[in-house]
């Protein structure tokens, strides 16, 4: 799986704003200091987040960025998509005529990794920014786990 710093930093920066409360206007310098992210990198990310309608910029002395929607209405997948982040779990390119190993066939585990990518997408679509700041993310992935997996974890009834 490959989720680069771009996606992680965008989610972190958006969570930083959301954690400050309703309508908070936050200068990028404040986010950079709190989260340890380069201001230049944040500027690039926030230009994309603004174009995607996830944040608004406010100019002036009390300016900065604020969320364009409530945290419960912003899915983590929206943020990752906005910064052009692709979560890639296979070595194959979609629609390519060659497989993972450069041959005409796919590797034996292709379907496993391809399905993992789909599950990550489903998960990121199910989690909101509000879930992240309220710390409700742990355990969310087990919601749709097959009973045999839950039995091994000792949590199935």
Structure report:
This protein is mainly alpha-helical and 157 residues long. It has a domain at 5-87: Winged helix-like DNA-binding domain superfamily/Winged helix DNA-binding domain (Arc Repressor Mutant, subunit A). It has seven helices and two strands. The chain has helices at residues 5-19, 28-35, 39-51, 76-82, 110-126, 129-133, 147-153, and strands at 55-58, 64-67. Strands 1-2 form a two-stranded antiparallel sheet. Strand 1 (55-58) and strand 2 form a beta hairpin. Helix 1 (5-19) packs across helix 4. It starts with a helix and ends with a helix.
Topology:
Blueprint: H1 5-19, H2 28-35, H3 39-51, E1 55-58, E2 64-67, H4 76-82, H5 110-126, H6 129-133, H7 147-153
Antiparallel strand pairs: 1-2
Helix pairs in contact: 1-2, 1-3, 1-4
Q: State the low-pLDDT regions, or none.
A: none
Strand content: 5-15%
Overall mean pLDDT score? 84
**Gap between N and C termini:** 32 Å
Known CATH architecture of the domain at 5-87: Orthogonal Bundle
**CATH C-level class of the domain at 5-87:** Mainly Alpha
If helices are DSSP runs of H or I spanning 4 or more residues, what is the number of helices?
A: 7
Describe the largest sheet. 2 strands, antiparallel
Kindly report the spatial arrangement of strands forming the biggest sheet: 1-2
Look at the structure and name the CATH superfamily of the domain at 5-87: Winged helix-like DNA-binding domain superfamily/Winged helix DNA-binding domain
Number of strands: 2
Structural class call reads mainly alpha
CATH topology of the domain at 5-87, which one? Arc Repressor Mutant, subunit A
């Amino acid at each position: 799986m490959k989720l680069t710093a771009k996606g992680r930093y965008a989610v972190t920066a958006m969570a930083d704003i959301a954690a400050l409360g309703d309508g908070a206007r936050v200068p990028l310098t404040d986010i950079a200091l709190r989260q340890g992210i380069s201001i230049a990198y944040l500027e690039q990310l926030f230009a994309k987040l603004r174009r995607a309608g996830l944040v608004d910029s406010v100019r002036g002395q009390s300016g900065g960025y604020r969320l364009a929607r409530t945290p419960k209405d912003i899915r983590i997948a929206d943020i990752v998509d906005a910064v052009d982040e692709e979560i890639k779990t296979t070595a194959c390119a979609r629609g390519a005529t060659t497989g993972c190993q450069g041959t005409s066939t796919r590797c034996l585990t292709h379907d496993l990794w391809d399905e993992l990518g789909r599950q990550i997408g489903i998960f990121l679509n199910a989690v909101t920014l509000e879930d992240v700041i309220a710390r409700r993310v742990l355990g969310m992935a087990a919601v749709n786990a097959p009973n045999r997996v839950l039995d091994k974890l000792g949590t199935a009834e």
